[in-house]
Design a protein that fits this description.
120 residues, Rossmann fold, 5 helices, 17% strand
């Protein structure tokens, strides 16, 4: 794999989480063409947009990895995907196993299928 992200369009899922937000910031400090930040947290999306307001290389998208069509539309034209979306707290997953499987398993499958269909 070529780890040179120069002039690449990068999609970051889970962009409003702790790791995702740091990754977005790190990528924007690099010579990438654009970072597409994708997250289902409306408040997080709002604050992410405010934190990087005016940066023309950032596009922020409210969406969910469980929504294949929305994900595929966002992934169109992307060169690299960093997938960080998911339910991570074990107690939440134990209490909501259907949501955990839908997000962590089906959502990851949607990432893979979208990447394949978009030639990422």
């Amino acid at each position: 794999m070529d780890w040179n992200f120069r002039n690449k369009i990068i999609l970051v899922t889970g962009a409003c989480g702790t790791v995702g937000r740091k990754l977005v910031r790190t990528l924007l400090d690099m010579d990438v063409a654009r970072v597409c930040a994708f997250d289902n947290d409306e408040t997080g999306v709002f604050f992410l947009e405010n934190d990087f307001e005016g940066n023309p290389r950032l596009s922020v998208h409210l969406g969910d990895v469980r929504d294949f069509d929305r994900l595929a539309r966002t992934m169109s034209g992307v060169d690299v995907v960093f997938h960080g979306a998911g339910l991570k707290h074990v107690i939440v997953c134990e209490r909501s196993p259907f949501a955990a499987v839908q997000t962590n398993v089906l959502g990851t499958q949607h990432i893979i299928n979208s990447a394949l269909s978009c030639d990422v």
